Amino acid sequence: MNIIETNLKFGALSTRKSTKRVILHHAEASKCTAEDIHRWHLQNGWSGAGYHFLVRKDGSIYSLRPENAVGSHAKGSNSDSIGICFEGSYMTETMPQAQINAGRELVAYLKGKYGFSKVQAHRDVCSTNCPGTNFPFAEIAGATASAPTPAPAPTPAPSGPSYQAGTVYTLLADHLRVRTGPGTGYATKSRRRLTVNAREHAYSNGTLKKGTRVTCKEVKRIGDDVWIRTPSGWIAAYYGEKKYVG
Ligand SMILES: [Zn+2]
User: Fold this and answer.
1) Which domain holds residue 130?
2) Bridge partners, 158 (sequence order)
3) Quick one: what percent of the chain has pLDDT higher than 70?
4) What is the CA(32)–ligand 1 centre distance, in A?
5) Are 140 and 42 spatial neighbours (Cβ–Cβ below 8 Å)?
6) pTM for the complete prediction?
7) Are residues 86 and 208 in the same domain?
């Protein structure tokens, strides 16, 4: 769910001490923006838009009055409620599905965020027909409380250095083993199984000398360790938090 921020300027507001319910309204205007509502309510002599949110017909959701401020939308019920206004005039119009879905989502989000389950129509608390007889109240209000969807955990940035195929690196340690695969479980290569070029930089047991230049053909990360494939075989580039190739 995406709540679009608005840059509306408000007069004096007070912070709401408790949040126990949400109250639903219609704008009683077939088409209106967040700015329209703000302007109308300023003209009423209020501090600005009295609702906290506006749900438009296309399903977009706008923030109006700051969510933690006492609203001005339902006389006698503002001190512990969040007011949501739906664009449209639902004594006569039929609400588009996109708007219903967005309303359901917003209500469910607020229920989960504040831990309340109470949803009321403006007409439940004041003498008004708001939000209109065609307003799909049950559909929107009935959305079950749900904990806010946790954002997917970001993939932790891999620790240690990063290596790239196609890059030439230098061995920082002496006697580095060349293996048949990326891991210590793979066999160590003997000198004669290295490339001709690598043999020139290898000891008799096949381990490579410090300072040898190797071309990285492939990178394999295993946990925090990084193995690179060279023309001769696999070398631990970063292993046990120690850098062997740089
Ligand atoms: Zn209302």
Assistant:
1) 3-141
2) none
3) 93
4) 15
5) no
6) 0.59
7) no
Tokens of 126: 């004041």
Residue 160 confidence class, pLDDT cut points 50, 70, 90: confident
- Indicate whether 123 and 176 sit together in one domain: no
Give CA–CA dist 214/218, Å, rounded: 12
- Expressed in angstroms and rounded, the spacing between residue 25 Cα and the centre of ligand 1 is 4
Give yes or no: residues 96 and 195 share one domain: no
What is the band of 179 on the pLDDT scale with cuts at 50, 70, 90? very high
CA of 96 to the centre of ligand 1 (A): 19
The last residue of one of the domains, among 125, 141, 157, is 141
Q: Indicate the SS3 state at residue 199.
A: helix
Distance 50 CA to ligand 1 centre (A): 10
Q: What is the rounded average pLDDT for all residues in the chain? A: 92
| Ligand 1 centroid from CA 239, angstroms | 65
pLDDT greater at residue 233 or residue 148: 233
Residues 207 and 119 in one domain: no
C-alpha–C-alpha distance, residues 86 and 24, integer Å? 8
User: pLDDT digits over 95-124, tens only?
Assistant: 999 999 999 999 999 999 999 999 999 999
In a domain, 156, yes or no: no
Are 26 and 132 found together in one domain?
A: yes
